[in-house]
Design brief:
Blueprint: H1 2-36, H2 45-49, E1 53-60, E2 63-70, E3 73-78, H3 93-108, H4 117-123
Antiparallel strand pairs: 1-2, 2-3
């Protein structure tokens, strides 16, 4: 009789513990789904029009680089020619400006601001063999 009473209490303890776990998991799921399913605020055309992209070139050791700014906040620091192997600064302020302008144009069109080797060749930053063009 004692063993039956003891096993009953043990059974009740396990059921209580199980119920607590189920309630805890249900609360976690509800909070989690509440966070995930909260609709994000869409950017209106008026606020999208307020985004201004600008650039500024600067001198680095052995050449030039550029910064890209979004509404005055520095977002990109490019102190070397992208898309080619090695660390080569732009040979002239003009090369850095042309490349920065291309990046700004892409950002204004909501495109990824990557620069390809072909674009660098067209801009006169590198030659067809992917070597930086040194300006005099």
């Amino acid at each position: 009789m004692y063993t039956a009473l003891f096993s009953f209490k043990l059974k009740d303890m396990n059921q209580t513990r199980l119920l607590r776990y189920i309630v805890a998991i249900a609360m976690i799921l509800l909070v989690g789904f509440g966070c995930v399913s909260t609709p994000k605020k869409k950017q209106s055309k008026a606020s999208a029009a307020k985004i201004t992209w600008t650039f500024q070139t600067y001198a680095v050791k052995g050449g030039w680089g550029y910064y890209i700014f979004c509404n005055g906040d520095k977002m990109i620091n490019q102190d070397q020619i992208p898309a080619i192997e090695g660390k080569h600064p732009f040979a002239s302020d003009e090369q850095a400006k042309k490349t920065a302008q291309l990046v700004v144009e892409k950002l204004c069109k909501n495109k990824i601001p990557s620069v390809t080797k072909e674009e660098l060749i067209k801009l006169g930053v590198i030659d067809a063999s992917l070597v930086p063009i040194k300006k005099k």
